[in-house]
Amino acid sequence: MKLFLLITALGCSVLQAGSAAYLAEGKRVIRCSEQGLWLKSLVDFSEVPVKYPKGFSPGWSSVTRLPDGAILVASGAKAMTWDPTSEKWNLFCTAPKEKTFEDVACDPKSGKIVFICGDDERHIIWYVWEKEKKMLVHVFNRRAGGAEYPVFDVEGNLYFCREGDIWKGSLDCYEEKNKTRAVLNGSRIWPLGEHETYEGNTSGEGAEEVAPMTGWLLVTRKRMNGSGWGSLVRVPNADAYKERLPLKWENLADVEGGGLLALSPDGKQAVAYITAQHRWFLLEKPDGELLPLPSSEKK
């Protein structure tokens, strides 16, 4: 979801793409998988594939909802919009030269669109779409290299993860010498990253995706830099440092293999797709119970 200068994170791995999003009517969600795009009904619980045009293969892509209700799908060198009503596709933009789209997020308040790109050297690079000039602008990030997994809440606040911790802030854009400049501003609000120096495969866990609901954060906290174990957890939507909150969280479910999160248009509920279970879960209220939805055929 992301006008601007560049974030280059040396030594960081490019995040694995894949996400989910509510449709504007709040009754369906769309998710990405290795096989493509799937549309899940929260009314009759059916799940059907989304047809996409030739020359566009949205496997392990990233999706976000635009203010006009269209779904923006970023995958590889292309970002395309899909209209849920007409089911028509249109090219939105292409990735910068020698880069590919890895993630995307849209601010529902301002319509600002943030893209994260990767390159052959495994850098993580942020851009914002400048609507007036129809171009991508690099985002300047001075002290938080490696920031990833961007998402906006309903009020336009930006959340992202870095080294397993949750950060909150904004993407500030302004004109300077007839050029648009963008700067990533934020501070760490939840230290959920667990790090170690073990000589073998890392076992550290940390936040990899966030659904910023009203009052609470739904978080996928899983093994970093690899597949494997993890948990779906809940923490207060607050600055743990300023509020002097205890370092603890509520485990809601296991997410072995990863999970996708989506925030409802009003910010009052969220859904999670747990990959290993091939199943959706619903959090009807921010502080409510995580409910498994009727399962469809495994994809």
What does this protein structure show overall?
By secondary structure, this protein is mostly beta strands. The chain has one domain: Neuraminidase, CATH 2.120.10. It is 0% helix and 48% strand. It is built from no helices and 24 strands. The chain has an eight-stranded mixed sheet, with no helix packed on it. A four-stranded antiparallel sheet has the order 1-2-3-4, with no helix packed on it. Strands 5-6-7-8 form a four-stranded antiparallel sheet, with no helix packed on it. Strand 11 (124-130) and strand 12 (135-140) form a beta hairpin. The two termini are 27 Å apart.
Secondary-structure map with pairings?
Layout: E1 20-22, E2 28-33, E3 36-41, E4 47-49, E5 62-65, E6 71-75, E7 78-82, E8 89-94, E9 100-106, E10 113-118, E11 124-130, E12 135-140, E13 148-152, E14 158-162, E15 165-176, E16 179-190, E17 205-212, E18 216-223, E19 230-236, E20 250-254, E21 259-263, E22 270-274, E23 279-283, E24 290-292
Parallel strand pairs: 12-16
Antiparallel strand pairs: 1-2, 2-3, 3-4, 5-6, 6-7, 7-8, 9-10, 10-11, 11-12, 13-14, 14-15, 15-16, 17-18, 18-19, 19-20, 21-22, 22-23, 23-24
